[in-house]
Amino acid sequence: MLKVNIFVLIGFVVYFFYIFINFKKFSLSYHIILFTFLVYTFTLIGITLFPIPIQPQAIEMLREIHITNNYIPFKSIISNIVEATHWIVWFKIIIGNILLFMPLGFYLPLIVKKHMNVRKVIIIGFCVSLCIEVMQMFISLLVNCRYKAFDVDDLLLNTAGTVLGFIIFKFLYYVLQNCLKWDINRYIEFKKS
């Protein structure tokens, strides 16, 4: 199985090279936000795309499992709830897909400094999830084995998670800015003053 470790290492080397070149241009809060976003991104990639089966035995085992794609909305959500032997099984699948994308919705207004609204968040969350699903299909073609299923319900749950993360960010921003009277923008400025 091809694991994510080498890609994480390459990503961090590129990031630290970027910091070395641009450190004086941006604030410490920018670097912290960018670093934690990078950690989240590699975690997301590691969970959704890896491990990739490259050994013949692993590929043969996956072929015997008969992983199927789902193109019908809510089909796998309903079947996971109905067919699960224990509530924790469907809870992990459904809530896991939502939780996996919540950080993306939280990071979007921090990283994209232009006005971010729910419509843009839905589009970005859907597109990121779609890219992951398409990459899974592409990798399946490369290894000649369906190692992960394309599931339209993943798109729905991931997009919902992105929106939920954005709503939580907006709520916390409002509470800190208006109720606690903190000047949050001062802490998330990207350029050094």
TrEMBL record:
The chain crosses the membrane at residues 6-23, 30-52, 87-109, 121-143, 155-176. It comes from the Bacteria. It comes from Caldicoprobacter faecalis. Keywords: Membrane, Transmembrane, Transmembrane helix. PANTHER family: INTEGRAL MEMBRANE PROTEIN (PTHR36834:SF1), MEMBRANE PROTEIN-RELATED (PTHR36834). This is Glycopeptide antibiotics resistance protein. Pfam families: VanZ. InterPro entries: Teicoplanin_resist-assoc, VanZ-like. Residues 37-172 form the VanZ-like domain.
